[in-house]
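ligand=calcium ion
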Amino acid sequence: MLKKCISITLAVLMLFSVMITGVSAAKVDEAPTGESLIYFDAASAGWQGAEKILFYIYNVETSQELAAWGSKKLRGTKLAEDSDIWSFDPTTIGMVEGTQYAIIFNNADTTEETYQLLLDSTCYGDTAYWTGNMIENPVDSNKTSKEAKWRNSSLGPMLAITSLGNVVGETCPAHTTPYAMFVKFLTSDGRDGLQNAINYSGKSQEEIIKSVSAALGLTDEDVEHALYEAGMGGDPGPIGEGFTVKGSITSYLSDEDAVSVSIAGSGSPDSVAMTCTNTGYEITGLAAGDYTLTFGKKNHVTRTYEIKVSADMTLDAKICPIGDVTMDGKLTTMDVTRTNAHVKGTAALEGYALLLGDTAGGAGITTIDVTRINSHVQGKNPLW
Ligand SMILES: [Ca+2]
């Protein structure tokens, strides 16, 4: 008996509260109260004197809207008749704590709207405003929306990749990561996918992948793994196993003489694995850092390359015979002329060519080198 009475009382109370809610939502000249109110500064968006401002909200993970677009339930309330601050209580349409949403502020009179701003219960009491920036609509590139931000909350405009392959927004939704967004972009055959972006942006696949991954803050290693996950690239191996430096090797003269490759530097050169033939090399397991790669071969001038490793990289190496300042693998009158021009000061040799021309060893290029190279070319005293 007692149990039943309580039930009836509750039912009456609930009906009463629905009526109260209905009344306060319909009145626009009275400031509502409550801890879950959020606000929008309509003046910041140039919407002074707007008749209806809608607070459209959806679950950012499921895309489930709390109330249909245009619904009366989404109408905000002016703080005062002469105010341009509008308030709304999203709990009245089912917003709950612990879930992330996106909100779009819409001027129902002009159909102008803001770009998606992330929202959760930490935003209660906060006021959103237009920053003055416009953002490309992720789905329809013909549209732009006003960028809205909260005055206090760290949640910002939702990070997204547009149909043209541009990255907009700032805050990655909690249910995903920039990496996962990138993989989805690579694999989707819809308007949110790479192929669509290629079709409509006029940019190449390579350009889009490069710019999107950079804007999402992904490393080269992330991109390799994402491409592999999307079925667009080879297996780069486990993440965190170090970087790989590889490339081709060009050398001359005898094929019998082996090319030597060595690496030294600030990372982990001692623990790396290295394979090398006379035409190519691969060094794996490198930690990030600065390294010196050295290539040598009999009758060639040893060459070093300074590299900064922070991702897998390719470096094609080329070493040349002593005296071959033109770097074509043979000594001809061109090498004599070129070395002579350097000594005369008419055309300076630079870099590795400086070492190639220094045949006498360590004294810099002088007329002695010109004579020695010429002598080799004439077949008198071969340098090698
Ligand atoms: Ca040459």
